[in-house]
Amino acid sequence: MVQILPYIQVVLSILLVVMILLQRSEASLGSAFGTDSASGTRFTRRGFEKTLFRGTILVAALFAASAFASLILGR
């Protein structure tokens, strides 16, 4: 398990980067400071965007768990 853990982390990290880049971004300067005056409405995720968002959270949790396992098992 210790031998394949780095490969799992590499795959998860690449997958995580791709999933984050596929998500819609609110790239206005106002949203960087917490205000949403540029769009005026709230954004609700639906369909594929919601699935992608939840999948990103899952992959991030798996990556964190693999990093923790690497820390514990790697001694």
From TrEMBL:
It is found in: Cell membrane; Membrane. The chain crosses the membrane at residues 6-22, 52-73. It is a multi-pass membrane protein. Pfam families: SecG. GO terms for biological process: protein secretion. It comes from the Bacteria. Keywords: Cell membrane, Membrane, Protein transport, Translocation, Transmembrane, Transmembrane helix, Transport. One of its GO terms (cellular component) is plasma membrane. GO terms for molecular function: protein-transporting ATPase activity. Involved in protein export. Participates in an early event of protein translocation. Belongs to the SecG family. This is Protein-export membrane protein SecG. It comes from Candidatus Zambryskibacteria bacterium RIFCSPHIGHO2_02_FULL_43_37.
